[in-house]
Write a structure and sequence with these properties.
120 residues, alpha+beta, 5-stranded mixed β-sheet, 38% helix, 28% strand, globular, transferase, acyltransferase, GNAT_dom, acyltransferase activity, transferring groups other than amino-acyl groups
């Protein structure tokens, strides 16, 4: 289930974000978390299964109709199980009237999700 980020989840979110290649540097990681916490257009979500948070998806509203995914990360022990694809699907369901796109880093993954969804 996709849940909205809260400050109480900061350490978990930072841990998941640190798996992103662009977020390896601690200073950069802290800036990113602060951006999600303080800027209204930036929204961060966590993927919760039972009581565990195993994934993260974050993005920015580039305009009133387009949500662009900036970050997507899954705990390594839960990878290759469709968690990332399920987070993308849940994001699209959360914003059914809007277009969900991705930045250059995430674009290939989003395209793969779209192809798999079209095939099923």
């Amino acid at each position: 289930m996709l849940i909205r980020y809260k400050k109480t989840f900061e350490k978990i979110a930072m841990g998941l974000l640190s798996f992103m290649p662009s977020e390896k540097d601690l200073k950069r990681l802290l800036q990113t978390i602060k951006q999600y916490e303080t800027e209204e257009k930036w929204q961060l979500f966590l993927w919760k299964v039972d009581e565990d948070i195993i994934g993260l998806l974050g993005g920015v509203w580039v305009d009133n109709q387009t949500f662009q995914i900036q970050h997507i990360s899954v705990n390594p022990s839960h990878r290759q199980l469709g968690v990332g694809k399920n987070m993308v699907k849940a994001c699209k369901e959360l914003f059914p009237e809007n277009e969900v796109t991705a930045n250059d880093t995430i674009k290939a993954f989003l395209n793969k999700c779209d192809r798999e969804e079209a095939d099923s």
